[in-house]
Design goal:
Blueprint (H helix, E strand, L loop, with lengths): L6 H9 L11 H21 L6 H11 L2 H11 L5 H12 L11 H19 L3 H15 L4
Helix pairs in contact: 2-3, 2-5, 2-6, 4-6, 4-7, 5-6
Length: 146
């Protein structure tokens, strides 16, 4: 019987390990992958709540996977984050952004970018369990309905 491995481990097994030290990645690189990971977690939670039309799933997802909600989540969990996670968050939040907020304030957009950077850093570090813990805590503390 094959053991369960994380998505990152599976990618490494199939495509080969990456020799790049993730500490050299920019906060925006972490945010880029972190955005996808956060959305995958939220989409999984929504899909597992029951069968619904794809349009309904999408509308519910976009209410959660947006800068305003991510900013609320990170504000709610800041005291629960480790010092390392807070450092990654600050680096992500304070990075010069190359795009603008479409439907959010610049402040929320920056906070969301910082949160996504934390998710990306944790994912690339192989710590998906911690991502799930932080997202769960954020959902609980903000009262978000999944």
């Amino acid at each position: 019987m094959e053991e369960n491995v994380s998505l990152l481990e599976e990618i490494h097994q199939v495509f080969g390990e990456c020799d790049i030290d993730i500490r050299t990645y920019s906060p925006l690189t972490f945010a880029y992958i972190g955005d996808a990971i956060f959305e995958m977690v939220i989409r999984t939670l929504i899909v597992e709540r029951g069968q619904r039309a794809a349009n309904t799933l999408h509308k519910h997802t976009t209410k959660i996977v947006c800068a305003g909600t991510q900013a609320a989540i990170v504000e709610a969990i800041m005291e629960d984050m480790t010092q390392e996670e807070q450092d990654i968050y600050r680096r992500g939040k304070n990075t010069k952004l190359h795009s603008s907020a479409k439907n959010a304030s610049l402040s929320d957009y920056r906070k969301a970018t910082g949160f996504e950077a934390v998710c990306g850093y944790l994912y690339l570090s192989g710590n998906t369990k911690r991502i799930i813990e932080l997202v769960k805590l954020g959902i609980e503390k903000t009262g978000i309905e999944i």
